[in-house]
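Please review the protein record below. Tell me whether the encoded fold seems credible here:
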Amino acid sequence: MTDEELMDDLRRVIQAMDNPSLPDPAAAKSALAWNHIDAELALLEYDSELAEADSGVLLRGAETMPRQLTFTTGDVTIEIEIGPSGLIGQILPPQAATIELHSGNDEPRRVADADEFGVFQIQEFKPGPTAVVARAVDGSWSIRTAWTVA
């Protein structure tokens, strides 16, 4: 390889790094948006899809079973079940809250209220990059889940 060929290869690599092509730029922008700076990050503690894959056990009809996700902070847990009728969840310990569902595909955010038992539901849920923001009605806490592809 000549010096000129090497320089041409380096130019192509640098140009590709300066102009990355993303499969979904809107999802990348949404994931990096820091519009809930006051919200504590709730980490994914359990994902039924990952648990089944890790167990090595193939369940008959597993594709029709609801997916279960659990996100946790120090004091608050959000349990979510995603099924054909939408998304159903509960805040633990049970309490009233406002729930916002954010998707990375430029869809408008969906808002729901969790009742005094912490239960909420969002119908017509579309799969894709998703994050949930929950705020206690009394303002005592605000949390945001990690982005998950649901």
